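User: I need a structural model of Meteorin-like protein from Cirrhinus mrigala for a docking pre-check later this week. Nothing fancy, just the predicted structure tokens so I can convert them on my end. Input:
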Amino acid sequence: MFCVRSGLTHESHARDVEQVYLRCAEGSLEWLYPTGAVIVNLRPNLPSADGHLRACVKPRPDSRGATLYVERAGELRLLLTEEDQAVGRVRCFGLQEGALFVEASARRDISRRITAFQYQLISTQTPGEETYSHT
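Assistant: Understood. Predicted structure tokens for Meteorin-like protein:
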């Protein structure tokens, strides 16, 4: 099953933090005109426990306007900068490390920006846990 979350366009305050829950083992997220932040909770409908899963995040080549972190108990650990996304860098983290925190960059211009990435959950109990299949 492939999940797609698109059109996150909350317009009110630039400091708002929205939460989304994605329950698929792989999917994508697209955030138009990013402002504030989004916490992406990866909660797959899989029999294996979260402690045995890694999430790999692959930014779309045109992804702009946000920085990705891993968040746990209010602490942020940098995962992907805008520059990392521009060169297509893929990063992975264990689900037990926390949720994906996507923070919009402060911008004064009104140019069109889209933050978009694919994710895939990989069991750490199988060989090749660091690989990312292109979906």
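Before docking, keep this in mind: Confidence is low (pLDDT under 50) at residues 9-13, 127-135.
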